[in-house]
Amino acid sequence: MERVMDFSNAFSRYEALVDQVGQVFTKVSSEFSEEVKCKAGCDDCCHALFDLTFVEALYIKEKFDELYNGKARYEITERASTVDRGLAKMKKEAYKRHEAGTPDDAIIEAISKMRVRCPLLGEEGKCLMYEYRPIACRVYGIPTSAAGKGHTCGLSGFNEGKAYPTLNMDLVYNRLYKISGDLVREIDSRFTQMGSVLVPLSMALLTDYNEEYLGVEVKA
């Protein structure tokens, strides 16, 4: 007998975090309108490499399942499959470089400069799930920091070395990991560390988050 899993609490907490992050982006882009270059038709962030936390992956997959079927769904999943194979190859090459003694910082820097087209980027240069896009997409145009290093969009007008309001992504991801970990406990998964796993968006779209995958016991 199939078990109905309820993600509503985690999704509500996630959406609240999305709203908070959105307010930060709105404030910074309003105060620095000349520096923030985000506008319709710009898809630079749609070629950036990043992974999703567990709750983000579940959320975007649920919305994808609600929105798409038929030909449109097939075309997106085909693109996602192509991207996923490319990312797997890229990670394998990165591991080989690591084993060969290349410093991890150099490997990460090289990967960060690679551009991979998001499978949700439509032919007209618009996000096909813009309303439900991940947090990384929502903050791309403003200054952010992670692990003590600052980041900003290469197309922006922010000057290196000058101080700007900066969103601390370590704090954001700590919240995402907390929501994800709590969700794993709520569904009573046997995969207790699943809340700390990161996956590419392409994999999230292709994954069937059923009871077996989530490690949830199904009682007859």
Strand and helix layout:
Blueprint: H1 8-31, E1 51-52, H2 54-67, H3 70-99, H4 104-112, H5 135-138, E2 144-146, E3 149-151, E4 167-168, H6 169-186, E5 199-200, H7 201-206, H8 211-214
Parallel strand pairs: 2-4
Antiparallel strand pairs: 1-5, 2-3
How would you describe what is shown here?
The chain has 8 helices and 5 strands. By secondary structure, the protein is mostly helical. It has one domain. The protein has a 3-stranded mixed β-sheet with strand order 3-2-4. Strands 1-5 form a two-stranded antiparallel ribbon. It starts with 7 loop residues before the first helix and ends in a 6-residue tail after the last helix. The mean pLDDT is 91. InterPro entries: Puta_zinc/iron-chelating_dom (IPR005358). This is Putative zinc-or iron-chelating domain-containing protein. It holds the Pfam family CxxCxxCC.
In the predicted model, the low-confidence regions spanning at least 5 consecutive residues are none
Instruction: Determine the N-to-C terminus distance.
Output: 5 Å
CA radius of gyration is: 18 Å
Helicity range: 40-55%
Oligomer: single chain
Q: How many structural units, i.e. domains?
A: 1
Helix/strand order, N-terminal first: HEHHHHEEEHEHH
Shape: globular
Largest beta sheet: what is the strand line-up?
Answer: 3-2-4
Structure summary, number of beta strands = 5
Helices and strands: which structural class? Answer: mainly alpha
Most strands sheet:
3 strands, mixed
Round the mean pLDDT to the nearest integer and report it.
91
Helix run count: 8
